[in-house]
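Consider the following input, taken from an annotated entry for Acyl-ACP thioesterase (Terrisporobacter mayombei).
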Amino acid sequence: MEKIFTKEYEVTYRDTDARGECFLTSYMNFMADCGLSQDERHGFVIADMVKENHTWMLVDYEITICKYVKYKEKLRATTHVEGMNKFYAVRHFKIYDDSNNLIIQGKTLVILVDAQKRRPLSIPDEHYMAYGVKEKNPTIGRNKLKLSKCQNIDYKKEFNVRYSDIDLNLHVGNVTYLGWILETIPFDVMTNYKIFSVKIKYQKELTYGDKVSVQTEIKHNDDKVSAYHEIINDSEEVVALLETHWYKI
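Applying the prediction step yields:
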């Protein structure tokens, strides 16, 4: 059975949007912090990994939002590693409110790499023991997300990677990608709809000073909106593909 880690959070003023509700990016930051805190509990400190030129890179991220909470609400995040295989690991997250209602759940596929050589590394045996994973799961890493490119470009914006966008590994943090694509969503959708599903496929790294173009296609279907996003670097390479799905308030 997997070892579940739990950590508590409070929604601060900076975590809330114009509706007074918690930003999706803040939920993602809570989940990331919960995962890193579990790693540190087992002695796997990210700063030490950086010194050893080892890093976990996100491959896929799937998120489902069940409910939005507001300023000052207390949250409880849980996480566990479902399985590992060779270089890959799958981690699950859930966040609950103080009445134990499920707020959001997420699932990530990550790969362990040598940060200098940019080659996959085998996950050490001590990781299997620490996270309660008894054996390698041969399906982990095979069923990656398959997301489509935009068929039409309805909205487009360009961004420069700022110092505040990069993390300890000196590449753009995963939450920044979502922040960029939300800037291409029409104001009418942002104010009259809420996201209930996000899928992200990370394909290439971005570093400080890079320039990116974010392209978005919007499709309306009754009271729902589906948006398809591409993030492209200045070499015209697709850095990430995203899908967001919205319901009308």
